Amino acid sequence: MSVTREPDRLVLFTDAVVAIAITLLVLPLVEITSEPGEGPPAELVSHHWPQIFSFLLSFAVIAHLWFTHHRLFEDVRRYTTPLMVLNMAWLLTIVVLPFPTELLGTYSGDTFVRLFYVGTISSLLLTAITLLVHANPEIGREAGGLSRPVVLRAAVPPALLLLAFVLVPLIGYYGLLLMLLSPLAQRIR
Predict the structure, then answer these.
(1) 70 to each of 67, 77, 83, how far by Cα in Å?
(2) pTM of the entire predicted model
């Protein structure tokens, strides 16, 4: 039998880790402003556009994942060890994202870097957390079991991310826009 606890502490820790990760994204941009001899600010921005793009992309990705996590944890009334382990694994994917973001800013056209970047985004862990919350009345406020709609809603984000991964060599990061379809696809039954 696992010990259950109120989710506030886990949620606050998660929010803090996400906030730190999202803040770390901007540090490489701060460093480029101190480079001597870059010329006027417009040239600095245009010269470092890949780094700026990678920052904006990763900010949007982390924000989207955090919103999803936030909505999911509104239904959590207690947390257990399995939920904590899955949440920590999800946080690992958030914390590691500044690394592929930096690679993306430096090697923006490299196919391996693009695939590595998209591969580090893990909505699969959010899916596992969703299934755990909905399957376990000890955890979820309205745990009604793993009904077909619950499973389908949980499967949509990783399916869209997998499709984005496949499309990256063809259309670049535009495939990540599929993540924006996730809430819409989850509402459609």
Answers:
(1) 5, 13, 14
(2) 0.83
| Three-state secondary structure readout of the chain | CCCCECCHHHHHHHHHHHHHHHHHCCHHHHHHCCCCCCCCHHHHHHHCHHHHHHHHHHHHHHHHHHHHHHHHHCCECCECHHHHHHHHHHHHHHHHCHHHHHHHHHCCCCHHHHHHHHHHCCCHHHHHHHHHHHHCCCCECCCCCCCHHHHHHHHHHHHHHHHHHHHHHHHHHHHHHHHHHHHHHHHCC
Q: φ and ψ at 140, to 5 degrees? A: -85, 140
pLDDT digits (tens, 9 = 90+) for 31-78: 887 766 667 878 888 888 889 998 999 999 999 899 989 988 888 888
d(CA 166, CA 107): 19
Name the amino acid, one letter, at 112: F
Lookup: tokens for 1? 């039998």
Cβ(111)–Cβ(91) under 8 Å?
no
CA pair distance 127, 117, nearest whole angstrom:
19
